[in-house]
Amino acid sequence: MELKKHQAPMSIDEQLENLINLGLIIDDEEEAKNFLNDVSYFRLIKAYSIGLKKKNDKYNKNITFDMIKELYLFNSNFRQALFAQIEKVEINLRCRVANYFSCKYGNFGYENPDNFENEDYHANFIAEINNEIDRNGKAAFVKNFRDNYETDKLPLYALIELFSFGTLSKFYKNMKTEDKKEIAKIYGVKYTYLESWIEHISFVRNICAHYGRLYNVNLSKTPALYKQYTKQGITSVRVFATLICLSHILPKDRHWKDFVDLLETLFEKYPNVKIELMGFPAEWKNILN
After folding, report:
1. What kind and span of H or E run contains 128?
2. How far is it, in rounded angstroms, from Cα 242 to Cα 103?
3. Distance between start and end Cα atoms, the chain
4. CB–CB of 197/89 below 8 Å?
5. In angstroms, rounded to a whole number, what is the distance separating the alpha carbons of residues 79 and 87?
6. How many Å is the Cα radius of gyration of the chain?
7. Over the stretch 54-101, which tens digit does the pLDDT of each residue have?
8. The pLDDT of residue 208 is above 80
9. Number of Cβ within a 10 Å radius of residue 3
10. CA distances for 176 relative to 101, 102, 280, angstroms
11. Buried b (16+ CB within 10 A) or exposed e, 92-115
12. What confidence tens digit (pLDDT) does each residue in 21-47 have?
């Protein structure tokens, strides 16, 4: 197979001309130029044109720049709303894991590989977290423990604040099965599902943190779903599966209902969004509520 050559850099004017030649309808060229300057051609056009034109071909009939811009703005608003829900899971899970593990194994029980399933994974964890401690050596709480306590080690209840969500997910995954079950009971789910869900949510969290695309994209790290969902044809590769995971972990309180209502508002605000491209079924509100 012959490899493709890299496309030569284009000025904003050349980018606009290229889009027009590809059949994209642009009603306000100055506004389009400004948006391309703010967002970038690659981030906007390459990602949000998927499904609107055939590969190496012109745009489908009646596709406008404003439609692509709308999809981008929707994704931005949706991502921010989702990130706020993921933050709640991350903070709560840190608290639950730290409290349970510390009470059972002590403040520094995380250092003992016998308290975990896999010694190699534990060794990787220790190396990773030591790097984080060094990197955050000037943080007030790290300095406090190092300077004012009989040991310069950090107890887990403080150390866990240095965990990324990915580290937290791996920590839980390497806990003993009996311990994972106790944590999972808090959320009313089996530990195998919770393990899968937090690994998946951690992956999606990183997409959110790096301003990535959640609209019309297959997620490479997928969660295990209950049969009640797969029987309805709900796929695990689209972001609606993430919302299902969150709906089981987070309380179904006013804040969750506000989030669901916000999603509906976003769908109304951006009519060119096709919710099925995110894995949403027709009865999505009933499923989430």
Report:
1. helix 119-135
2. 31
3. 50
4. no
5. 12
6. 23
7. 887 899 999 999 999 999 999 999 999 999 999 999 999 999 999 999
8. yes
9. 5
10. 11, 14, 35
11. ebbebbbeebbeebebebbeebeb
12. 999 999 999 999 999 999 999 999 999
